[in-house]
Amino acid sequence: MFNKNFKLIIAALIIAYAVYQFIEGNIGNGIFLILLASIFVFLYFRNEIILLAFLKMRKQDLEGTKKWLDKIKNPEAALTQKQHGYYNYLNGIIFSQTNLTQAEKYFKKALKLGLNMDYDVAMAKLSLAGIAMQKRRKREATTLLREAKKLDKQNMLADQIKMMQQQMKKI
């Protein structure tokens, strides 16, 4: 909702007022204001709109996810680099249902910008492998599958990777 720099300015002002409250002897008010400022600092690192889009994605509501992502007007300016990566990651998941070329573009941009969790990187590479396989680029798909398998440390994507490897043998 707020610009990323505006969030830090609000947090700094709240912390300054919290220090004033501590000096005045209002310890409870100061503690509350510090907690309030920590919310703005948290939202600097985790964009609230992307968090809401992830909640919609969790419920398998792709239209709702797209609606939340459309509220971000200028992602390059409004988001940090990792947030912009997740913005592209979510768009890639949405477009993978309809437009594979567009989804491939979003997934590659998300990987270039960076994702925080290895599972998300593995999921993006697995999706790219599926797209490459559908476009008959077997070598690229094999490489991406191998990288996804390496990144999937908890074996959450093991079944999908095995299924895709079986389909690769048929091509």
Supply the key terms.
0% strand; single chain; 2 domains; 171 residues; mainly alpha; Serine Threonine Protein Phosphatase 5, Tetratricopeptide repeat
What's the short version?
With 171 residues, this protein is an all-alpha fold. The protein has 10 helices and no strands. Helices cover 80% and strands 0% of the residues.
Topology:
Blueprint: H1 4-24, H2 27-45, H3 48-58, H4 62-70, H5 75-78, H6 81-95, H7 100-113, H8 118-134, H9 138-151, H10 158-170
- Major beta sheet summary: none
Tell me the span between the first and last alpha carbons.
Answer: 47 Å
Q: Give the overall pLDDT as a whole number.
A: 89
- Broad CATH class of the largest domain: Mainly Alpha
Tell me the strand percentage band: under 5%
DSSP helix count? 10
Number of beta-strand segments: 0
Overall morphology: elongated
Q: What would you give as the CATH superfamily of the largest domain?
A: Tetratricopeptide repeat domain
Q: Under CATH, the topology of the largest domain is which?
A: Serine Threonine Protein Phosphatase 5, Tetratricopeptide repeat
